[in-house]
Amino acid sequence: SVKVDASADPIEVVASKGKYKDEATGETVIMGSDDELSVVLEDSLTEKAAPVTPITTQVRDRVIAQIQAGNITMSQFSSAKEAALEEVAQAYGTDKTAIMAIPSKPESPGASSSNEAKGAYLLATFSQYLKDKNLSPANGVNPFAALREISKDLKNDGKLDGKDSGTPVSSTFSSLCTGWSAGMNSASENLKTNDKTQGFKDFDKTN
Fold first, then answer.
1. Nearest 5°: phi and psi at 73?
2. What's the whole-model pTM score?
3. Rounded to 10 degrees, what is the CA torsion of 87, 89, 91, 92?
4. So what's the pLDDT on residue 1?
5. In sequence order, which ranges of the chain are alpha helices (DSSP H)?
6. CB atoms near residue 41 (< 10 Å)
């Protein structure tokens, strides 16, 4: 948890210089100096519970890109964040409430119908997708590098097509974006047979 001064203005919560266990490989990922996770909130007037994940970071990047481009003003922040949540949720084939839920523990995610379990499942599926593409920590690849390239693709138009404002993203990660939908669907099935993610072996993503 983190304490901040009460404010009616939007705030950003950033996590950096930590470490975590990669779901699909079991590898410990140590965050580098340029690695961060973030979530943006409409205000800090009341106590809030919010996740700080790769997916909320993509939402943040989409909103910030629109502000920097002059497409929205700070007074439009709340509606822009909701729109970004919808776009990212669509990309992940889920509901925005799952993105903004505190993820449950991947080893025991709980009922498939809960938003907390869905949040954990999304993160594990993303991790599995990187593993399937040989772009995981086990392959010596920094997952934050993949996250940055995916965000470059998504942030300007809300779509994953392998391009950042018409310019192709890094060739190392372009196939992640262009094959996103099919790749994530495949990863969701591979997750169930991965001995590192057995908490999801009976997970029903249709709930």
1. -105, 170
2. 0.93
3. 170
4. 58
5. 54-68, 77-92, 96-99, 115-132, 143-155, 174-178, 180-190
6. 17
